Amino acid sequence: MSRFLLFSVLAWSAASVLPAATIIIVRHAERSSAMSTDAPLSAPGMARAKLLAQMLRNAGVGRIFVTDLLRMRQTAEPLATQLHLTPVAVAQNDTEALVNQLRQLGEKETVLVVAGSTTVPAIVERLGGGPVAAMPDSEYDRLTVLVTGADSKTRTVTLRYGEPTE
């Protein structure tokens, strides 16, 4: 059901505002309980990363952006492997650099962005997606789709994927 909904949203978005770039933004999947700033994904996190890859394998993703922590790379890895893509790494604390790269996307380009809980809302807001609720530390299932149109308007759809985490 969630795959059908995601594909329907992506198809509607592409049809309604072409030319456009589609930016799919998720927080990294569940991390291990290791008390480290660069903690890896847990087993449920690896399962969520695989689900994300299954959901997006036919979405037309041509590039993947990740912040430079291990759990971001691990979340993107299953999709990157399927699509034979090398994720573009951006410094975790340099949201502006990432937003600037996203603003340069080409027409009809679709990308995935994997970032942290504080970075995801900031990216959505800076790309014109409107105010975004903060992400609690326990939230891993939010998937936001931004479609930037030639009319300079950004359309935003927020979905949930995988097991609910709130």
Number of helices: 5
Overall outline: globular
Give the biggest beta sheet.
6 strands, mixed
Q: How many beta-strand elements?
A: 6
For the terminal residues, how far apart are their CA atoms? 20 Å
Number of domains: 1
Based on CA atoms alone, the radius of gyration comes out at 15 Å
Written overview of the protein:
With 166 residues, the protein is of the alpha/beta class. It has a single domain (2-160), classed as Rossmann fold, CATH 3.40.50.1240. The chain contains five helices and six strands. α3 (70-83) links the parallel β2 and β3. The longest helix has 16 residues, at 2-17. Mean pLDDT is 89; it is low at 12-18.
State the main characteristics.
globular; 23% strand; Rossmann fold; alpha/beta; single chain; six-stranded mixed sheet; 166 residues
Task: Walk me through the topology.
Blueprint lengths: L1 H16 L2 E8 L15 H14 L4 E7 L2 H14 L4 E3 L4 H9 L6 E6 L3 H8 L15 E8 L4 E7 L6
Parallel strand pairs: 1-4, 2-3, 2-4
Antiparallel strand pairs: 1-5, 5-6
Report a brief summary of the structure.
With 166 residues, the chain is an alpha/beta fold. The chain has helices at residues 2-17, 43-56, 70-83, 95-103, 119-126, and strands spanning 20-27, 61-67, 88-90, 110-115, 142-149, 154-160. Helix content is 37%, strand content 23%.
